Amino acid sequence: MLTLLQTLLIETLPSDTDPILQTFIQTILPAMEREFGLIPAMGGSETAHYQTLIKQGDRYANENAKRWATKPDQSLLVHVLNGLLTAWNLSLYLPQHRQLKEAEKRLLCLGLTLHDYNKYVRGQGEEQPPPKAHEIDAIINLCRELGEKLDFQLFWDQWQDYLLEIAYLAQNTQFSVDSNSILSNWENDERQFTLDDRRLNDVLRHLLAFGDVAVHMGDPAEVVTTTKGDRLQDHLDWLNIPQKLVYHRLRDCRGLITNQIHNAVVNFARQLGWNPILYFAQGAVYLTPTDVITPDLADIQTAVWESLIRGDEDNNQLGLAAYFQRGDVGFVRDGKGMKIAPQTLELFTPADLIRLLPSVVQIKVANVKSPATPKRLEKLTLTDAEKTFLLQGADIRADRLAELIILAQREFFEGSQDYIPWMLSALELQGTISPEQTQVQSGGVNYGWYQAAAHYIATHATLDEGQVKDFLGKLSDRLATWAEQNNLLKANSSPTYEAFIHYLAQYLEVYPSNQPAVEFANELNTYSLAKVNNQAICSLSAGDPDAEDQLDTVVLFKPQQYSNKNALGGGRIKRGISKIWSLEMLMRQAFWTGASGKLEEQQPVFLYIFPAYVYSPQVAVAVRRLVKELKRVNLWEVRKHWLDGGMQYSGLQTLSWRDEAEIGRYGDSYSRADLPFMAMTYTTTRGKTTTDAWVEPSFLALALPTLLGVKVVATSSPDPLYASDQEFVESAKLDGAAGFWQILGINQNLRLQDLAPALERLLIAYSIHLEFRSSPPDARWQALNGTARDLATDVLNVFAIANEGIRENKREPSPEDVKRIWKYAQLWITGDQKMTEKLQLIERLVKEYRQFYQVNVGESSHAVLLPLAKALEVILTVPEQIAREDVILQAAGQLNDALERQEVYKRPFLMDKSVDISTRKAQELAAIHTFMTTCVDELFLGLYKGDRALLQENRNRIKSGAEFAYRLLAAQEKQTEKTQTKGEK
């Protein structure tokens, strides 16, 4: 079975990838995911670190745990994989005489895989600390043990012959005080190095060190601003690789627009001979020749703008202009007609836009079954004869003609005295309809041009929709030509372009470049000034001075509605949107096919996917493939795969994560050209509640970091919460999650070690809800809060909910059902001592009464629970002043009387004919007394503190738990008997 990460890498690796690297991914990567996936290489939970360090006797456990936890999370899996791929990529730049041989390539892979064995040992939580640098035998033994766990044999059958080299490289990857690079310390009479020590120290160690240092970086600028850059350059020099490190960085993360900027800069840099080797959320680091070409910032800005608007034809990437031309974005139609986004007017000349209108009208005016023209004609004063005639053309054809004419007049010919006569002449209606009639309107809606359009269509009733489309195209072309010849169109300008260039000047860094110092924008002053002047303030970018009103042609959410309810003596703050955020919103409309102003109705939750520090190029391509092809999650399928995997998250690897229709659709060239610096996607719901909206993204926010090692923010905000993954130290953050998340007791900010327990808890709640409280195919997620509340209140509610669902379906639980439900309960109470003791007590009570009373599990619940029901009945009905011993004796007596009325085969003691009847009766009475003592002392006086009201409230829960315990014990006993019988045969 291939894992998700393994599948993505295999599919996206170039076809000419070295077979050794391909074999590593096919053989060792799944074992690395299993062993390293949730062990922190950096960051992690302070509590988990502290507990492990205390076990290992660290005197500075508190200080070390705090220091480690301040760093952002990165799993050992991601650390090793990206480090290995980075070192491998660098090895391709080695001079000819230093190129790696086959054995050295394998040693590169295995040495880097084990280089952080100390973090693996700590992550296991063992009491034995990792070996010190001088404990060479222990290091070698640990590497052998890890090699066996990680399936090194499948990768290289000679790995044991090179175990000394592997251990040496693992210990000495870092050129630090913890190294032990003296060869004589490693060799003795029984072991000798097979490889030339010069290849080990002068080539392999430096490659490994480069990869290791690189994956500790969290920002591309660190190649210049920290000593890590100096260390990386030193390793390049030692390896005789005549390259230097440069970078680009965008100090902002907004979503699609920032990703588009990054990809455009990478494409521009490649033309300069810069080769990207590391990708970050904020930029990239490149290898370039030492005589690096210094780019001109103006050229970069122009190239980025062209890529954003025109796209990249070589890499099959569409720009915004293509979506505008198709009418997908930049236009909206409401009850008052069509509107154009300001950016549309800026990206195209008026003449080009006029010629574009027919294709846009064809797409946007699609109300074939309910055309607007008949309704508009009702508003006009017409004779019966005129109405009869016009209604012959009052259909979708007239709608499209009228919308085009009205839109063109409003946007391009407002106030023109020549437009109306020209249009009437073009329609051959100058003698039929007067200019005044065309301008009849009410409530901002023009009715007159609908009359003219209906008249034209009625006169040319034989025109079909295709012929009307051709006519509109010719009409628009004639109109644009006439307007150009008569200088009736305004000069084209683009404030959006100017704002975008200013944004790049403020936020984009390219090193080296001729970039001037950026000015510091005072956001507080901008915000205050906007308030005083009653200007629009960008609600998404902290008071951007270039903000404009939010238009429904641009924003995906609902724009601000008009209101005259303002504070007494105060100004009105207008919620606006900046030019940059307008571009972002238009890109989301285009690439997500989201209707402007409509997405909010679907309650979207956005998932912002950050790298854990850094992506190697191969991993970046793999993540992009998943984000591009990620399909809507079917939580019924999630439950099935999780259960099939033994309630382990590894079972999710077999889940169908990607849309089959999307797989391979774009080809390798597309996926490699459009990389995710900060990837993003979103979920929507058909349900009406916040709970419906959050069930899927809550799962994804935990599953993606667990399976891929990425970091995920889930939020209903269209603005990412962080500008960089370095600000985001956790592995997963759920911002404003639905109520069930808090009820389940899961933290909204999850460190790496918290992921598996949180995912397990979430999937238990989902599985119980789907199995027992849904009504397929309706999952009834709106009721999930109730399920979560029941589970969080008492572990015995697991069995109460299960009983409720089983009885509703009118069936008996199978042994497999019982085992599964019992396991739900056991996993649910992991780490909760109080609930663990409660469940153990219920199981103990059943075990005790099964000694003297057993019935077939197929009998009624009343029969199965007879002893416990009788015990609870007596405890709840005897007077409070009765002494403890008297309660026990009275209950035992009543239970014994009840047993006397049962068949003998239900009483195990009486069925034992090996002893006399009096002994059997005495044994039964003793067992009854023991059971009743436990009921009174442990259950009533202990668990419920002698509170009869509390016991009564929990009575049905106790009985539900006991019934499942009985069925479980009966199944286990039956299985044991089968095993013994088979053994005797």
Tell me briefly what this model is.
The protein has 985 residues and is α+β, with helices and mostly antiparallel strands. The chain has 47 helices and 20 strands. Strands 17-16-18-19-20 form a five-stranded mixed sheet, covered by helices on one side. Strands 4-5-3-12 form a four-stranded antiparallel sheet, with helices on both faces. Strands 13-15-14 form a three-stranded mixed sheet.
Please name the defining characteristics of this protein.
single chain; 985 residues; alpha+beta; 55% helix; flat
Sequence of strands across the biggest β-sheet: 17-16-18-19-20
Radius of gyration, CA atoms, in whole angstroms: 36 Å
What's the overall average pLDDT, rounded? 88
Tally of separate helices: 47
What is the beta-strand fraction? 5-15%
Helix content: 40-55%
Overall, the morphology is flat
What does this structure look like?
This protein is an alpha+beta fold and 985 residues long. Strand 4 (275-280) and strand 5 form a beta hairpin. The chain is flat.
